[in-house]
Design goal:
heterodimer; A: 113 residues; mainly beta; four-stranded antiparallel sheet; 0% helix; 53% strand
Chain lengths: 113, 115
């Protein structure tokens, strides 16, 4: 059974640019969540999509956005990149709520220069 | 206030020894779930174990067990018979049902296992 696939693995962008990260969840999983991990702030929840609808959102500025397609694949976009956006971005998929654990991908490491 | 507190930045243990990683949490939601994840240097978060707030028994998964003390709001992870491959960062996380599906993570504990 294929796991959660995140692309690309590594990315270097310049301040002011925008970036799009992709996440393909486990087949059959309809929920996709995104997290940002930095040394200073740790792991923080960005947002969650379920059946193409944003179901939950963390405390991040509007520069961070996402979407989910009908095949459950999800993308997150960060516009007008800042140095502080440098982080490991993790995607997690789940079949739904309840006692299910979230399966995470290996992440996309974004460096903003 | 921190919702998930992991007070041990680093732990050192020898192979085959048992180790306990501490986690305390704070919530007023009566329905919540507690998770432990392992993050090796590769970056992937690996799900280890889950405990629901209404579960009567402590969760166990192979060498992992969760020492759940609800009144003290603690959910410590116990790893029996440590192995070199257990060296990694370990995160405790909570999902509050009233808050939806977001996981709130602690700062993590780095576990180093030596031979």
């Amino acid at each position: 059974k294929a796991g959660v696939t995140q692309t690309p693995r590594y990315l270097i962008k310049t301040r002011g640019q925008q970036v799009t990260l992709s996440c393909s969840p486990i087949s059959g999983h309809r929920s996709v969540s995104w997290y940002q991990q930095t040394p200073g702030q740790g792991l923080q929840f960005l947002f969650e999509y379920f059946s193409e609808t944003q179901r939950n959102k963390g405390n991040f500025p509007g520069r961070f956005s996402g979407r989910q397609f009908s095949n459950s694949r999800s993308e997150m976009n960060v516009s007008t990149l800042e140095l502080g956006d440098s982080a490991l971005y993790l995607c997690a998929s789940s079949p739904g709520q309840g006692r299910y654990g979230y399966t995470f991908g290996s992440g996309t490491r974004l460096t903003v220069v | 206030a921190q919702k998930i507190t992991q007070t041990q930045p680093g732990m050192f243990v020898q192979e085959k020894e048992a180790v306990t990683l501490d986690c305390t949490y704070d919530t007023s939601d009566p329905s919540y779930g507690l998770f432990w994840y392992k993050q090796p240097s590769s970056g992937e978060m690996i799900f280890l174990i889950y405990q629901g707030s209404y579960d009567q028994q402590n969760a166990t998964e192979g060498r992992y067990s969760l020492n759940f003390q609800k009144a003290r709001k603690s959910a410590n992870l116990v790893i029996s018979a440590s192995q070199l491959g257990d060296s990694a960062m370990y995160f405790c996380a909570m999902r509050e049902n009233q808050a939806g599906t977001a996981l709130i993570f602690g700062k993590g504990t780095t576990l180093s296992v030596s031979s």
